[in-house]
Amino acid sequence: MSSGGSPYRKHRKDLESGGGSSGYDDYESVNDPFDIARTKSAPADRLRRWRQAALVLNASRRFRYTLDLKKAEEKKEIIAKIRTHAQVIRAAYLFQAAAEKTNGNFRTPKAPPSPIPTGDYDVSPEQLATMTRDHDFSALQNFGGVKGLAEKLKTNPDKGINEDDSNILDRKNVFGSNTYPQKKGRNFWRFMLDACRDTTLIILMVAAAASLALGIKTEGIKEGWYDGGSIALAVIIVILVTAISDYKQSLQFQNLNEEKQNIQLEVVRGGRRVKISIFDIVVGDVITLKIGDQVPADGVLISGHSLAVDESSMTGESKIVTKDHKSPFLMSGCKVADGYGTMLATSVGINTEWGLLMASISEDNGEETPLQVRLNGVATFIGIVGLVVAVSVLIILLARFFTGHSKDEHEQVEFIAGKTSLGDAVDGAIKIFTVAVTIVVVAVPEGLPLAVTLTLAYSMRKMMADKALVRRLSACETMGSATTICSDKTGTLTLNLMTVVEAYICGKKMNQASNTSELPSGVTSLLIESVAQNTTGSVFMPESGKDIEVSGSPTEKAILQWGVNLGMSFEAVRSESSVIHAFPFNSEKKRGGVAVKRPDSQVHVHWKGAAEIVLAACTAYMDSNEQLVPLDDGKVEYFKKAIEDMAARSLRCVAIAYRPLKGETVPTDEEELSIWELPEGELVLLAIVGLKDPCRPGVREAVQLCVKAGVKVRMVTGDNLQTARAIALECGILGSDADATEPNLIEGKSFRALSEAERLDVADKISVMGRSSPNDKLLLVQALRKLGHVVAVTGDGTNDAPALHEADIGLAMGIQGTEVAKESSDIIILDDNFASVVKVVRWGRSVYANIQKFIQFQLTVNVAALAINVVAAISSGDVPLNAVQLLWVNLIMDTLGALALATEPPTDHLMDRLPVGRREPLITNIMWRNLLIQALYQVSVLLVLNFKGRDILHSQHDPDEHAIKEKNTLIFNAFVFAQIFNEFNARKPDEMNVFKGVTKNRLFMGIVGFTVILQVIIVMFLGKFTSTVRLSWQLWLVSIAIGFVSWPLAIVGKLIPVSERPFADYFVDIYAYCTQCRNGGSSARRN
Q1: Where is the Cation-transporting P-type ATPase N-terminal domain (predicted)?
Q2: 227, 488, 761, 796: which is the annotated catalytic residue?
């Protein structure tokens, strides 16, 4: 494709986001305050602007699930205060230490304070907390260093604590658990209070109180309380139902928030690595740390290699701090920026600075989504129209009333100047005012923006079952607009169950990858040393003789298992030699290495990484006679061909090499050693191994489903280009060998070398990017966003964080993903499966579709209710739907309607359409057609009943009061049934069969059944409250028949074709034409 545009941009106004390191300006592109295409990292003033522009009846409820801008500022201030306090304490301690140093050389070590009796331990929680908080190195020395401290805590630096439950419970009792007191969520009564804050409901309650007082005064308590009491009761029911719905919704968010905080990590217990929840860590635990992990507790370093920690979350300074035995203190909440190591947990929960910080701030789940903001705009527009209508009705009815044109049910004039009592006049005015206010209640769709939160809460809960944890609400709906998914290969498209199936050792291919009989002992010894020492994984051999347990990343596990098959005794090898320096695996360099000091004081540097990269650094290989043979061009080609052959069969190729060093070339000083760079050249090739990682079952079908849905899947992997190509063909990302050419298939360094304009030109064509670095992934995301794509990106490494943050939707892997990647993401894929990513797309589209269903349903009710009351008020001075009836209709429409339609599960039909542009009209032409047909039908039928009802019912000769009430009851009943039947139509706006899957949605069926039962009770038994009379069975059938007609009418309506061009565009063109004509006329007059 050319750089001109994207085929995925469906709508000419849908100017999607772009790239650049500063990010494309998604926020100030339009003047409309309700048009925020991307709320991710939106500026506070932009968010404040739409809130101020919204017409809101109940701010506390409407903005409950949006970001509390005031709280966000307070949170920043609290964090800053706690950080400053901690830094002041540390600075004072360092100042004191420096002063003592200058005055009397070094201060004499003080004896550690007498321990407070704390169970069986020789150290108190207070001593430990003070030591780590103040970074008091002398206190650690007084405890006897890390080993002495471990003894006092009854733990082993190598094997950790015992796994038995009583020991863990005892430690929790003495030192506390790794949790912190959280502020309690709102209770039910707070939601009741919030529901009461609705301006119109408050006005109605005041009007009800006035009506109640006047009614009791004029008619006595027995009869006079009905008018005011019925309105008050209806308002209370509305408040109660609203509060229950909101409360249940908040509990869902609370549960999801707890799930987000439940980090899984590895600890060493009883000599074996086990995965546990961060909340289960206890003092004395030995915790393994690697790049991207969050430090889960305060503690001290046991051992580490190139370990560097980002302490910005605690200090506020973006400074990477190196950790070694001179600076061993680790703070909870910080992130591991580089290296790996183990730590001893000394303080947990509230005894850590992180715990104090988290206990001081409340977790604010508030975050607006683009759809929520847009719906506030729709609600504001409809609300203004409704307000104008309500004011008009109020003026017309009051004018008719006070000029003597209004008559009661007995055909008597209601107000005669000088004759009607003040009480009757006020009572009549209150009734009129109540109707006008109730019209506002119905007209302002307060529940419309809240329906987004409702459907998102429902979707998030259901997505957990589909192995997706939503961290940002907006991502859930944005996923429905995704036009491309940039997916990792390993673990996402493949199973992540690697095994070594092929090996080239001693310059030739092995018959069996782990057959030691083919190998000389010296080569086997070197390979085992390399496998055991150059790893972040571990091997645990149970004493009971059970199967060995191998832990680590899938690649590490496969190579360790291969080492075990070669005869490796993991613990023995690691105890014989020691790692003196390490270069942790780096996704930029695609390799990792260690320097190992052997018992004979020899130093071996071992490297392991991408086969072609390690091979390029080798100058020799070891043959079957254990002799070093120079790598000539012929042998290099032989190995390259071997790598290509393995890659073509979708094997991941890893090379293992080493270099012996002479003692004088290795630094002996610790400071020099910490900055020493491991030699990367003149290596001796020991082995090239091929790891098989099969494709996930069902991934090909998932990719095909994306293609059908207009979502392009791209593979972005650090693996060899040939391996990536083979997997892409297997998964269906590449259709055939013919597609496997540039630029469809491209290497990361080739893409990186292009200019920005060239990158934009090829980005859309890329299907597979091999040997990519995290920066290449970021450049691709930026280019795709500039081309108008809505980009979803998967990532698991720490270096993936910028791409995850830059993407419209960042998807972190739940199993292999680091904490840094997860924190930068919007959604965590819990099973690392691409099929789960596709399910997220379905749910995203479902959110949008459900909101559209609800809009169609609600606007139909709005238009019909307003039209009926306005026409009746203007023509006859009376309204057929009174305040109580309108409140019941509002309840059906707002709360119950949202519950029924916003919780529809996704269907396969959603994946048959193209992605929804983020600025496409919310109300499509199909919706306008359906809405107008139903509204016109309802208005026509009900107005006929209003004006000709008595004739149709043959009740001209009945008493006026009963005849009018019967007619109005029929209108009310027919109106409610029309909404109930139309609720089924709203389920499938563009499908003929509106009943498909309806029985599976129990909530929908339950709400429809509940509405019907309540309607029967209202009409048959609550006539005094609702001003209705009991209807005969014939009139019940008439009401149901009026509702039923909406079904065949909807089918006929769907046969009417609609223009693809949005209706709104026609109005824009008319406005532009009129403006042009006016300007043209003005110019002509001036000439």
Answers
A1: 142-216
A2: 488
